[in-house]
Amino acid sequence: MWQRLRLLSLAISAAHSRWRAEVGRQIFRPHAPHAAPAFLEYQLQTNLTLPQSTRAAIAPDPNPSHTTTASYLVASCGLSPAARRRNRGLPWGPHRLHCQGRRGPRSLRHYGFSDTQIAYLIRQSPRLLLIDPDKILRPKLEFFASLGFPVGYLVRKSILEHSLNKHIIPCVEFLRGILGTDANIRLAASRFPYSFIFDPEKKMRPALQALRRHGLSEEVISKLVLIQIGVLRLAPDRIAQIIEDLEALGLPVSDSRFVYGFRVMLSIKRETWLRKVALYRSLRVSEGDLLRAFRTQPTIMLISEDNIKKKLRFFLEDLKLDLSYVMQRPVVITYSLEKCIIPRCVVLSVLMRKGKIDRGIDLLRALLGNSKRFSQQYVLRYAGDIPDVVEAYGGKIKFEGFKDRMA
């Protein structure tokens, strides 16, 4: 009996060895995608029972074409299996994707798209693999190239999926009538990623007519569209409401800062506006000062609530400035605290300690202005005698306040 059991054990062991060898050959030997793997047939013939996990791992795909296609998409385009599952409605047959899909990425590479950009596009919209690159993709890419758009702007499925003749060209022609030049179209579109999918007749023209009805000149409309192209997707009643609100705040359409106020009102919700007003008031900014500051520099309402808090506390507690005085020059609130205001304060502090500038200097006046002006007046001018100003301007010296500064 023991001898019989030993022989049976050896037979089973030999069968397992032959099965493993056959599995190895099948893994490394290509076979027809629709043919059943030979090692499965062998396993059935030998009547060996495999663990459930092993059977699940080697079970054939009910739709064998999916395996080949998925491998291609993952290897060539970076498309994850999850993204493939989200787009089950597509004809994922390997023949179509291998013949047509391979040409899509090659066409994108020809126009300067990096592999990373191509992978991003395909993950966002696998349907791009089914677009005929010669009939659809290439004309679209050539059209945008003729307008001077960089490749990076085109990494948007909203552009590559929409019809060139039905959406994009009519939209560009409409914008050209407002903005005048392709350079202006590029600038306006760079600020809003969905600029070329607006419907010119259903969306853009009604918005344009509403702006004209409210007294905006063609020049003002052009400037408004240039800085906030999203105005052309607004309903006429929304445009009317924004203009009414701005007039109530003292920014009529005749004011040169009206377009910036419009941009602000379009960019934030009413609830956000009210929260920011309450925040400014809680930091001891009077209603009158806030209103005047908004009329002077509307973008102070686009600053995040955390940044409003940090900046005003810095002016009040670290610089010992009267906030009423700060609000008279509200542009300073729009400057970056870490990248602009603090490095400039450190430079001024170094120069005060060295006796190069008066301790009673008007800090706000010194802090205002562009980087070139400040650098020439306070950094380059003294860099030879006081190397620390260069270190300070580069953010390498910590700001410790203006000690003994005259009020």
TrEMBL record:
GO terms for biological process: DNA-templated transcription termination. One of its GO terms (molecular function) is nucleic acid binding. Gene3D superfamilies: Transcription termination factor 3, mitochondrial (1.25.70.10). The keyword Transcription applies. Pfam families: mTERF. It comes from the Eukaryota. The keyword Electron transport does not apply. Keywords: Transcription, Transcription regulation, Transcription termination, Transit peptide. InterPro entries: MTERF, MTERF_sf. Belongs to the mTERF family. This is Uncharacterized protein.
